[in-house]
Design goal:
209 residues, mainly alpha, three-stranded antiparallel beta sheet, two-stranded antiparallel ribbon, 5 helices, 5 strands, 9% strand
């Protein structure tokens, strides 16, 4: 996974999260769970007047009509279902990206730890590395005084400071990727919406009469 892959994954995660949030907000509004974002889904005449009793009534009426459309219009309901399936596909794609990111982080952590385990150590436990110019530095890059190494014996398998920094930067890049995912709830007439305790998956179950 290179830098371009990381950028594409970050862009995909942001886009999917934004789209899922919009759809989640709409489904909450339809189901009567106000989240304060209904204006994005209503006509200007309604959303511009949110706040007054009259316009609040129009807002509720508009949401009711939308809910009824799902119940009475097969084509509209089918479109809603298609949207849900598309979001489900996007969610699975997001899961795959997150899993690859998690594995990449674990790989980067293991590589860095392997190099640190072979680093030279001073008597106080400080890890030190040689640079290409022959100088010696601590793990944070600060230079070490030469007289500390006058009688220091290098074992030959220590990794250079440059290699350790490369692994550290790779781990930092992986760790910047978002590791949370939105929850998408799909509204279907005659069902209630339920979210798993993990907060990742959503399922519908028929309401008991």
């Amino acid at each position: 996974m290179n830098f371009d892959d990381d950028e594409r994954q970050r862009s995909t995660l942001r886009r999917l999260a934004h789209e899922a949030q919009d759809f989640d907000d709409l489904q909450n509004e339809i189901a009567g769970r106000e989240v304060g974002r209904a204006g994005r889904f209503l006509p200007d005449a309604v959303k511009n007047g949110v706040g007054s009793a009259k316009e609040a009534e129009k807002r509720a009426d508009a949401l009711t009509r939308l809910q009824l459309a799902l119940q009475s219009n097969p084509a509209y309901a089918a479109l809603n279902n298609e949207t849900g399936e598309a979001l489900g596909h996007a969610q699975r794609r997001l899961d795959e990206i997150m899993e690859r990111t998690r594995r990449a982080i674990e790989t980067a952590e293991a590589a860095l730890e392997e190099k640190r385990s072979h680093a030279a150590r001073l008597e106080d436990g400080t890890l030190v590395y040689r640079k290409r110019n022959g100088h010696v530095s601590a793990e944070d890059g600060s230079p070490m005084q030469g007289n500390l190494f006058a009688a220091f014996v290098w074992r030959g398998y220590e990794h250079t400071y440059a290699k350790v920094q490369k692994d550290r930067e790779r781990l930092l890049t992986r760790s910047r990727l978002p590791m949370t995912q939105p929850v998408c709830m799909i509204f279907r007439p005659g069902t209630s919406m339920e979210t798993t305790s993990a907060g990742y998956d959503t399922k519908s179950r028929h309401m008991q009469s």
